[in-house]
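Why do we bother with a discrete structure alphabet at all? Because it lets us treat a fold like text: something you can write down, compare, and reason about line by line. To make this less abstract, here is a complete entry for Amino acid/amide ABC transporter membrane protein 2 (HAAT family). Read it the way you would read a sentence in a foreign language you are learning: slowly, and without expecting to understand everything at once.
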Amino acid sequence: MSEVNIAATPTAAPVAKPDPKPRRLTTLRLPIIATAAVLLVACVAPFELAPFHTFQLAMAMIYAVTLLGLNLLVGHTGQISLGHGAFFAVGAYTAAIAMEHWDTPYFATIPIAAAITFVLGFALGVPALRLRGLYLALVTLAIAIFLVPLLKRFDSLTGGSMGLVVDKPVPPAWTGLAEDQWLYFLALATTVLSFVLVAGMLRSRVGRALHAMRDNEIAAEVLGVNLAHYKTLAFAWSALLAGVAGSVYTWVIAFVSPDSFALTLSITLLAGLVVGGLGTTWGPLLGGLFVMFVPSFAQDVNQAAPGVIFGLLIIAVMYLAPKGLAGLATQWTQWLGHRVRKGKNHAH
């Protein structure tokens, strides 16, 4: 038998496998690039805009923090709240009362408002253990309804129907910032920190438990998720974020009154979250912009019936973007990425 020269035997060339790294890196870089671009624009904006527009953007970020808490509850946990404006009001009045009656430094009002609203949210989470759906919605709605007359009743503390006027935070001399710019950067810092903390929470075991509970409570309980613990925790954290936003609201507005926190505020916040995108990263921010600017736009279009214009705009957005503005932006990004990859493949 002749020996076979193994070394000389031709071997099939290995099949080149596509390297998934470039695509994976592109997928990871897109959110980072988008976040960096948004932060860059946010830092430059107060130096390019008029003071009133700077104030509007600060208010939009305050609403975004409130919607971040509401999104944690509704979008990531599957609970519902029609009274989130009440927690926002409690945070605002806590800051106003602390600054007006107790001469509390404005920075110190955030932990006070956060602690009070956290306790209130935890207390509301207890009945939520036995309620769900429309029944839970009615309970939260009742809180938003009776809060306004309650605020009017304690004149000596809350100022009654006239409300409370407080001093705005004065920018430190070393910053060289105007008052509106300083308030804007305070709101921006609060917003960035809140988004980072919630993003970290959602990536942890807590976030996985909340998502499991949202998708299927029975399956989540079988897997060992403590439903009572995480439901109350979701309400508490959601209320805390609303309270923090309310505290910063008092700094920016320098005035609180019961009529500023009517039932329509809670409904508008929920509508803004749905329009922005439930359960999405950018939904609260887009919803905050919607809550701030769309009512003003509706008022400019028709001063006799701004509510009609506002409602029609919500219907139009829901028809064109069922998953919210954030979902629509994601679809556009995916379509653009697909077109770019397709163009590269044709080039090769």
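What the structure line is telling us, in plain words: The chain is about 75% helix and 0% strand. The first helix runs from residue 21 to 48.
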